[in-house]
Amino acid sequence: MVRPGVARRIRGLSDRALAWLFITPTIVLLLAINIFPLLWTIYLSFTNYRANRANVPMIWLGADWYQSILTDPDIWAAMQVTAHFVIWTVVIETVLGFGLAYLIDKKFRGHGMWTTIILLPMMLSPAVVGNFWTFLYQPQIGLFNYVVAFFTGRPASSFQMLGDVTLSPWAIVIVDAWMWTPYVMLICLAGLRSIPDYIYEAAEVDRASKWRQFWSITLPMALPFIMLAVLFRGIENFKMFDMVNLLTGGGPGSTTEVASITLKRAAFESWRTGYSSAFAIILFVTVFGLANIYVKALNKVKSR
Amino acid sequence: MAEVEIISVSKAFGKTQALSDLSLTVGDGEFVALLGPTGAGKTTALRLIAGLEQPDRGSIRIDGRDVTGDAPADRDVAFVFQQYSLYPHLTVFENMAFSLRAPTRRVAEADIRAKVQEVARLLHIETKLDNKATQLSGGQMQRVAIGRALVRSPSIYLMDEPLSSLDAKLRGELRLELKRIQVELGATILYVTHDQTEAMTMASRIGVIEGGRLMQIGSPREIYENPINAHVAARLGQPMINLLPAALFAGVPDGAETIGARTEHLTIARDGGDVSAIVKRVEHLGDQSHLHLDLAGRPVVTLADPEAAFGAGDMVSLRLNKPLFFDAKGERVAA
After folding, report:
1. Domains of chain B by start residue, with CATH
2. Which one of A225, A228, B197, B312 counts the least CB within 10 Å of its CB?
3. What pTM does this model have?
């Protein structure tokens, strides 16, 4: 006869110990690749550290970088380019995405096939998308210029989407909208599908026109989903790097230099590690703050 | 209010024949209940009248006008759905005012307010008008759904099992209220239910529907006392009618294969009856007792006085007292 406590010790670990055993690898991994780099970046942002001269002794600079970044007109220009990009892509993707979802939700013949076709761009890698839109935008051989020429009559080689100061900001907006409108559509479609048919039937009997049904049932009931899509796209595009880097690399000049491209240049071309760390922290706080305010609003809408 | 006629309407969904050649007239100010099991076609009948479905054959007339091809909005009907179907993001007031605010109705805002408040008082939800529809209990939601129909004065109120999702107590209360409101307003109501008590207590006429066919229509009393076949007889009565082989009893009319014996058709005594049976089980319900008997291997359920001291295993004697007779097909045979 063995006492229970001894028996447990003999058989192995307690439940609590087992629980720790299971989650420790995850916690270690998270600490190593998320928390530690974040804290390390915060530390570096107060120093003169340069990653290409790692053996130069570090000097504590306090908030110097923060001050110089927030007063730098180039940084504000990059933030404006980012804002332009974020606002226009989110607006276009939301309007088109919701519109497509509304049409697909009508369950016409072959709506399943159309859903799949519409979703294709979203499934591609941004690197692939960036590369083949570079070809589509080619003034001489590009399909985009050819199509514009076909409809407007302007010669195809008379404009360069990626090389023109006024056109290039729109060129990246078009590509992002092409790629990510399906994603917004998918979320909106889930919202529309969640509205039960009998609510529309009740409205039908109540003599609500299609127009009134849309404004007083469809839109308010799908709104939390639309807002969620806006949040996801907003955060994603605030951080946009890969596609823009491939398409324009920030150019011509700095007309498409979104914040993350400025950041990459400072960090890995000028090797101003401390400076770029400070900028990264500023971007992080901005996105985090905006997203939090937005989520509060979203919860308010949801609880209505 | 108006008379509503359904004239030999048929409707199929794919291979399922939901309704076959259904004809029914709901008179002005009448409360008609369609009683039948799930899948009998009751709801389909309502949806056809509302215009939410189109019949394959037949026509529908409201107030003498053929509305068969009309959209729901043009039919002037009010529908109470089984699943409440309130607009979840609107308040109770906005839900009830929704139909009155249809631009085609041109009701003044002050009249809307007065009407909604009047109906809310009728349904005892006047304190809930500013709540969101989703913040209500099931009973309150269903009152709002009924209220949303009552604020209008349509040709007909179509109600699809409006009380089925409520608890027994609330169901009893709303049953009385609904009947009172119907009498007060002189409303024309077509009410669909599978609950015989609702049909018996509220309806001026009951239509028993089964397998998409209207089997019999008549006053609750007629349907109960004079069912045309065994199906209809089994629909009404608690405990359910006992269907017994006629061979067990002497003196049955020609052609009768089955005897339908309700509780009131059976006299139980210690002895001196036509046949004897064994008591299997007694269920005491307080005011009455259900007596489960074994009659030559057939189960028989009847009511007994709670005072009567029967116990399991007792031998009792049964006497039939003007029961119903049915032939081999279940059709009624005259006694």
Report:
1. 4-234 (3.40.50.300), 241-333 (2.40.50.140)
2. B312
3. 0.79
